[in-house]
Write a structure and sequence with these properties.
Strand content: 15-25%
Structural class: alpha/beta
Organism: Actinomadura fibrosa
InterPro entries: ACMSD, Amidohydro-rel, Metal_Hydrolase
CATH class: Alpha Beta
Distance between the termini: 14 Å
EC number: 4.1.1.45
Helix content: 40-55%
Low-confidence stretches: none
CATH architecture: Alpha-Beta Barrel
Number of helices: 13
Strand order of the largest sheet: 1-5-6-7-8-9-10-11
Order of helices and strands: EHEEEHEHEHEHEHHHEHHEHEHH
Subunit structure: Monomer.
CATH topology: TIM Barrel
CATH superfamily: Metal-dependent hydrolases
Pathway: Secondary metabolite metabolism; quinolate metabolism
């Protein structure tokens, strides 16, 4: 049984001088020479990290130890560059994407490169996807919003439709969380509360705006962190759709009718939560995701899937690898 992790991050070796293409608060990697490092944002220390984030040899060793056969490798969201002027952001994405390809080339067949794009400009984003696909990227990793523009925004929807037409899988990750000013500095609440809310907001924005009606059904789209709070609150959303015309104004079907339009990863950390997620989405729509190598991720990849007694052998095998094989079109 092949084990494929669809949610694993990289911060490739990028010096501060290279990162200055983005301007102020540029993200760069400071290595300490002892297997540890620091993600930097300009002069500010952002987060301490270990070599598995940037060193492909350390990454593959960790995969071997954990029994992971393949990782889909996506940039750390700090690298998105959505605040930059579009042309600068396009140059930045090309640099990051080349480095991700270089990283994954150290273990071909084990590491699947996902590109990033300058999502603040839909034309440049679509152009970047084309270049990245031709260069060997197997999917695209995007944030769930650009400023106040969420996936129901016309240009955002146009980009997703472009990815559908190009056959490019999309991994959507929450970032720059709402309400962060109320939670900052308190127990990592932006990650514990804001991420789930961001993902719920993104999914419902696509559904209730009618965007899924305008995007080809061929789109392969996966939301991280188990789809956030979507599965748990789906009953509330359906109830609102049935009882309030303002909720169903642009969506011809209730939210529960759209669960066949996207995937989610398995990063919910509790077999009871995974059971609900599978009941809501179907086992064919859930894929193993660990958030490697960050400590808020699943430190024993696949442990929640294996511990979920509600899953049969076929469902467990699908979640651990079979679904991702189809999602990424792997042989």
């Amino acid at each position: 049984m092949t084990v494929i992790d669809v949610h694993a991050h990289v911060f490739p070796r990028i010096s501060r001088a290279e990162a200055r293409v983005l301007g102020a608060d540029e993200p760069w990697l400071r290595e300490n020479g002892d297997g540890t490092g620091m993600m930097m944002s300009g002069d500010a220390e952002y987060r301490p990290v270990d070599a598995g984030l940037w060193d492909p040899e350390a990454r593959v060793a960790a995969m071997d130890a954990a029994g992971v056969d393949v990782q889909a490798v996506s940039s750390t969201p700090l690298l998105f560059g959505y605040d930059a002027e579009p042309a600068r952001a396009a140059d930045w994405c090309e640099l990051v994407n080349r480095r991700i390809l270089d990283h994954c080339a150290q273990a071909p067949g084990r590491l699947l490169p996902l590109c990033q794009v300058p999502l603040q400009d839909v034309g440049l984003a679509c152009e970047t996807v084309g270049k990245a696909a031709a260069a060997g990227h197997k999917g695209v990793h995007i944030g769930n919003h650009v400023g106040a523009r969420y996936p129901d925004d016309a240009e955002f929807t146009e980009f997703l439709a472009h990815c559908a037409r190009e056959g490019m899988p999309v991994l959507m990750h929450p970032w720059d969380m709402l309400g962060e000013d109320r939670m900052a500095g308190r127990y990592m609440l932006p990650w514990l509360v804001g991420m789930g809310a961001e993902t719920q907001l993104s999914i419902l924005s696509l559904i209730l705006s009618g965007a899924f009606e305008r995007i080809p059904a061929s789109l392969r789209l996966c939301f991280c962190h188990g789809g956030g709070s979507f599965a748990y609150l789906l009953g509330r959303a359906d109830n609102a759709w049935h009882n309030r015309d303002i909720v169903r104004a642009d969506s011809p079907r209730p939210p529960s009718a759209y669960t066949d339009r996207f995937h989610v990863d398995s990063a919910v950390f509790d077999p009871r939560a995974l059971r609900l997620l599978v009941e809501v989405m179907g086992a064919e729509r859930v894929m193993l995701g660990t958030d490697y190598p960050f400590p808020l991720g699943e430190l024993e990849p696949g442990a929640t899937v294996r511990a979920c007694d509600a899953l049969g052998d076929d469902a467990r095998a699908a979640i651990l690898g079979g679904n991702a094989r189809r999602f990424f079109g792997l042989a």
